[in-house]
Design goal:
- The protein is α/β, with parallel strands linked by helices.
- The protein is built from 13 helices and 19 strands.
- The protein has 2 domains: 27-280, Alpha-Beta Barrel (TIM Barrel), CATH 3.20.20.10; 281-409, Lyase, Ornithine Decarboxylase, Chain A, domain 1 (Beta Barrel).
- Strand 5 (115-118), helix 6 (123-131) and strand 6 (137-141) form a beta-alpha-beta unit.
- The longest helix has 20 residues, at 200-219.
- It is globular, with a radius of gyration of 23 Å.
- The protein binds pyridoxal-5'-phosphate (PLP).
């Protein structure tokens, strides 16, 4: 599918008068249309809920938009819980799916009434000790091990993943929870990441539904929700076919009717915890070409770097690039598009065919709406960029300002007085 930027060169020229590059910009219209389509795709399930994975895009303005479509928050840390609380998402509207969890995080999750999803069998005792008593509603994260295979090959490797309880442990754990007076049970599994196929959720659902039936038969424990978690991917590359959420929803419905309904489990709620699918395509990193370099290769240096978008450096991930204003020009130049970090993997693209880039050109790096800004860091003393929201009426709102040097130095207690050589006494 052709990948088109949701802002034009003219629009960016207008935006930069107020907010200089680099910045992440989000497309409100796209976010809303997608959230609505998701809601419709799972409307057949009475208890359905999407818990947006806050870690993907932890911005309260965006969480509030999703809240309008009934979304809750999937949190994994103390500050993510605070963020969810701040936008009024509390109680059962929070799924706390964390691992290696500090005690204070569990405490806050419990205080907010979140549904806690335990990552390990030992966390049952850990949680009970902290809270004095287990919550009445608890979820367990399942990891069957091995590899997750689909018709088109191996999708991922759960056997290598640190998360979740084994099959044996999961049966033991529900038994323990039942004995300890837990009343409402859920199961969660995240077995493959960024799947660009409509078959992932239905396949995962089938596996979990069959397990739910077995849990009911063997232990008399009736699950009240099944959480398919994240992993629904997006088409980062132009040659990929994007997932169709309607097809995915219908696929899950089919196995629900085949497996759960006949087993007397027709009232189980389906939950999802998508991050990437909810937000990824609706964000872009906009940056400016500031240097060209002709050495052993042709380089274009931009004013963003890997601290603004880590995925290419970290995973070698592909992010499509549009040179704004040159959408219809021939891609007859081969470039490495780089940032300024003292790290050779700080490249947004390697050997990418693009139109001829001139200094001052604005470059849109696509699909940064999830796991983009949020993975940012401060290496080389680089500062995090602003986040902007493009409203449906074309106006632009600053939803997070860019960091300044004062932010960078804020954790030295008295930097202003001593120019950074003071440590707290
Ligand atoms: C990261 C994560 C998600 C979201 O994953 P996406 O691939 O962005 O959909 C959901 N649940 C948990 C527990 C996660 O760690």
């Amino acid at each position: 599918m052709e990948k088109k930027a949701f802002v034009t060169k003219e629009k960016v020229e207008e935006i930069v008068k107020e907010f200089p590059t680099p910045f992440h910009i989000y497309d409100e219209k796209g976010i809303r249309e997608n959230a609505k389509a998701l809601k419709e795709a799972f409307a057949w399930n009475k208890g359905y809920k999407e818990y947006f994975a806050v870690k993907a895009t932890p911005n309260p303005f965006l969480l509030k938009i999703l809240k309008e479509y009934g979304c809750g928050c999937d949190c994994s840390s103390y500050t993510e819980l605070m963020l969810s609380d701040a936008v009024g998402i509390r109680g059962n509207d929070i799924m706390f799916s964390s691992n290696d969890t500090p005690a204070q995080d569990f405490e806050l999750a419990a205080k907010l009434g979140a549904t806690i999803n335990l990552d390990d069998i030992t966390h049952i005792d850990f949680l009970e000790k902290i809270l004095g008593k287990l919550p009445e509603r608890l979820s367990l994260r399942y990891n069957p091990g091995g590899v997750f295979k689909m018709s088109n090959g191996i999708m991922d490797n759960p056997g290598d993943a640190k998360y979740g309880l084994t099959t044996e442990q999961i049966f033991e754990a529900y038994g323990i929870l039942k004995n300890k007076g837990v009343k409402e049970f859920g199961i969660h599994a995240f077995l493959a990441s960024n799947t660009v196929t409509n078959e992932y959720y239905p396949m995962l659902a089938k596996q979990l539904f069959e397990l739910a039936v077995e849990i009911k038969d063997k232990l008399g424990v009736k699950l009240s929700f099944i959480n398919l978690s994240g992993g629904v991917g997006i088409a980062y590359r132009p040659d990929q076919e994007p997932n169709d959420i309607r097809v995915i929803g219908a696929g899950v419905k089919k196995v629900y009717e085949e497996v759960l309904v006949p087993a007397g489990l027709g009232d189980v709620a389906i939950y999802t915890e998508m991050g990437r699918f909810m937000m990824g395509p609706y964000g872009m990193l906009v940056t400016k070409a500031i240097h060209e370099k002709h050495t052993h290769k042709e380089y274009i240096g931009v004013d963003a770097c890997a601290v603004n978008l880590m995925r290419p450096a970290m995973y070698g991930a592909y992010h499509h690039i549009t040179v704004l204003g040159k959408e219809n020009e021939k891609c007859d130049h081969k470039y490495d598009v780089t940032g300024s970090l003292c790290e050779n993997n700080d490249k947004f693209a390697i050997d990418r065919m693009l139109p001829e880039i001139e200094m001052g050109d604005y470059i849109a790096i696509h699909d940064t709406g999830a796991h983009g800004f949020s993975m940012g860091y401060n290496y080389n003393g680089k500062l995090r960029s602003a986040e902007l929201l493009l409203h449906e009426d074309g106006s632009v709102q600053l939803i997070r300002r860019a960091e300044t040097p004062a932010d960078y130095f804020a954790t030295f207690d008295c930097f202003d007085e001593y120019k950074g050589i003071c440590a707290r006494k």
